[in-house]
C-alpha cells in the first residue's frame, strides 16, 4: 500500500453522520473495495470514524470550531467520550 493511515475520519461534504456511516458500510466494508480497505492499519486497529461533514466541516461558520474539536477528540484518543459524542451525533466509530 502506498498510504497506510493510523486513523481515518470520514466526513463527506453535504452528508450527515447517518448517511456517511451507511455509505461507508455499503462501499468500503463490502464488495470489491473491502480487499484493500481491510489491509489498512486504521481499519485493522478499529480507528475509522465518521463525522457529520455537513454540520461541522463543509460550511464556513462558527461550527468549524466544533469540527476542530471533533478532530482533536478523535486524534488525541479521547475515546472515552464516545457515548456522549454518539448521543450528540458529532462523531462515531465505524465498526466492521
Salient structural properties:
mainly alpha; 96 residues
Question: How would you describe this protein?
Answer:
With 96 residues, the protein is mainly alpha-helical. Helix content is 45%, strand content 10%. It has helices spanning 17-27, 34-37, 41-44, 53-56, 63-75, 82-88; strands at residues 8-10, 48-51, 91-93. Strands 1-2-3 form a 3-stranded mixed beta sheet, sandwiched between helices. The longest helix has 13 residues, at 63-75. The two termini are 20 Å apart.
- What global shape is seen? globular
Structure summary, number of beta strands: 3
**Low-confidence regions:** none
How would you classify the quaternary structure? single chain
What distance separates the N and C termini?
20 Å
* Strand arrangement across the biggest beta sheet: 1-2-3
Q: Rounded to an integer, what's the Rg over CA atoms?
A: 13 Å
Q: What does the largest sheet look like?
A: 3 strands, mixed
The residue-averaged pLDDT reads 85
Strand content: 5-15%
How much helix is in the residues? 40-55%
Total helices: the number is 6
Order of helices and strands: EHHHEHHHE
Structural class: mainly alpha
Summary?
The chain has 6 helices and 3 strands. The protein has 96 residues and is mainly α.
Write the SSE topology:
Layout: E1 8-10, H1 17-27, H2 34-37, H3 41-44, E2 48-51, H4 53-56, H5 63-75, H6 82-88, E3 91-93
Parallel strand pairs: 1-2
Antiparallel strand pairs: 2-3
